[in-house]
Amino acid sequence: MPLEVFQAPATLREQLIEFQSRQQCYPFTELDQLKEELAGYVGIYLLYYRGQLPLYSGIRTANQYSCCMPIYIGKAENPGKRTGKGSVAGGLIGRLREHRSSIRQVKNLDIADFDFTVVAMAVDLVAWGEAVLIRHFQPVWCSIISGFGIHAPGKGRGAQMRSMWDEIHPGRSFAVQLPANPITIESLQPQVAQHCQNLAMRLGCPMEER
To answer: What is the pLDDT of residues 3-19, one digit of tens each?
Structure first.
């Protein structure tokens, strides 16, 4: 007899996506002004790009009126969840600050070109919620250009190749020391453009700038 597998009801996934769509979109430059509001919460966060980098022109177009197509989705969990101890002091605000720092370090991105939304959740639902929203939105930095969410390599991994994200967006101090990645913006452009066009149609985002 095959093993029975528990599946979350489809209606629950749809409720999460609908709940996310109702959350306010904030400029990333206003993160510190929201620290009290976000403090103590865990959950999912979505980053949206509106800048002029040609590689992401489809994302900029999709987000010209509202936060429609995230470029990245990540999660903030309680560090002590496995033991039941610890706090959520880092939580959403801590993880968003880490990403803000990454963007500020690179040469071809500007924090002023990003917005974000958050979905505060019970800690036991965070990993599930992240997976649901990534599958739904298929963000470019989660599906094509990997490496944005990584930290500096641990001891013994310093010879690993630079991530795709760090090769495309040079500047993070730990990545400068790593061997180059052969990927180029030119080689990624067709795949990213087609991906964004398909997503815009499915999500109902604008496909042309006005």
So the answer is: 998 888 889 999 999 99
Q: Smallest Cα–Cα separation from 196: which of 70, 31, 30, 26?
A: 70
> What's phi and psi for 27, nearest 5 deg?
-65, 140
Select the more confidently predicted residue: 35 or 88. Answer: 35
Residue 71 · residue 109 · CB < 8 Å = no
For the purposes of burial, counting CB atoms within 10 Å of the CB of 36, is it exposed (0-12), middle (13-18) or buried (19 or more)?
Answer: exposed
Distance CA 38, CA 21 (A): 18
Q: Which of 193, 184, 170 is nearest to 54 (CA)?
A: 193
Contact 28, 115 (CB under 8 A): yes
Backbone angles phi, psi at 22, to 5 degrees: -90, -5
pTM for this model (two decimals): 0.91
Residue closest to 145 by CA, chosen among 133, 123, 162: 162
End-to-end CA distance of the chain: 58
Which residues does 107 contact at the CB level (< 8 Å), separation at least 6? 169, 170, 171
Rounded distance, CA 208 to CA 199, Å? 13
- What is the CA angle 147-122-40, rounded to 5? 75
Tokens of 159: 């010879």
Distance CA 78, CA 88 (A): 5
Q: What is the pLDDT of residues 95-104, one digit of tens each?
A: 999 999 999 9
